[in-house]
Amino acid sequence: MDSKTDEQTGRMDQGAGAPRAQEAGRTGKRFSAKRKLGAVQRLLRGESLDTVSRDLQVPAHRLSEWRDHVLARAEDVLTDRERDGRDEVCRAVTNPATVAPA
Fold this sequence. Notes:
mainly alpha, Arc Repressor Mutant, subunit A, two-stranded antiparallel sheet, 4% strand, WH-like_DNA-bd_sf, Trp_repressor/repl_initiator, Transposase
C-alpha cells in the first residue's frame, strides 16, 4: 500500500497517485448566494449544465441542486399573495372558533 501517516498531523498521505482536491473537482471555494444565483441564471438562459460546471469548476449535481432550490423558492414566492378581508371570511367559515365575536 502506498499510504502512510503523517506523524505530526495524523493524516493519511495517499502518495503521488492520489488526486488533489482541485483535480477531483473540488475547488475548496465557497460560493456566495449571488454567485450561485448567477450560475443558475446561466442555466435558465439555456447554457448547458456541462459548460457551466466546467467553467465554474462545480460538480453538475451541485448546480442541479442550486437550480432546483431556486425554482422551488420561486414557486413559493409566486403563490404568496397579499392578505385582505377575504382571509378573515375564509377563516370564519372553516374554523369559527378562531374568529373573535363582533
